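Lay summary. Proteins are chains of building blocks that fold into shapes, and those shapes determine what they do. In this project we predict the shape from the chain. Here is one chain we studied, written as its sequence of building blocks.
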Amino acid sequence: MKYELPPLPYAYDALEPFVDAKTMELHHGKHHATYVAKLNEALEKEPSCADIPLESLLGKLDAIPPKIRTAVKNQGGGHHNHSLFWQMLRPGKEGNAPEGVLAGKIAATFGSFDALKEQFGKDALGLFGSGWIWLVKDERSELKLITTPNQDSPLMQGLMPIIGLDVWEHAYYLKHQNRRADYIAGFWNIVNWSFAESRIK
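And here is the predicted shape, written in a compact code that computers can read:
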């Protein structure tokens, strides 16, 4: 199968003032598009992998032929991470917070939503270089926070991403420069908790 860049579910400026329109345009239209193009190039070299769903490829990297394994990890991970990321966001809402099953699981795991946000922020700020911070569900349906380097996907560890934040500099530098903490704080206003709830179920 040939992968395509998915359209954003909102306009480039819809996440203002937390993520600026120019960053969204470059992040989606350039960075994500490049991951898609390079993933397709890699899969053309190995037809045996072309029709395997990307989630399966990322979950079993060791089974991928070595000549395309790194490309699938990096480019496929980038495509999958970003495809989820756009759905994990939505236009801002004051008092944005999880509800339902997810809210209960967050309280049971972390003590409170505020405690989750605090630990999420510490882990995101502590991530050296480029990567992601994720709230994931493990094989026992328990929640945990993890960070992944570069474009590594939680699927590579057998974990399901519930929400995630891209902390590569290209995701925030035009607006926030070196103030990663401001970007992280703004993220909580634009989390799509309905999408997150659908994934926890």
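What the prediction tells us: The first helix runs from residue 21 to 44.
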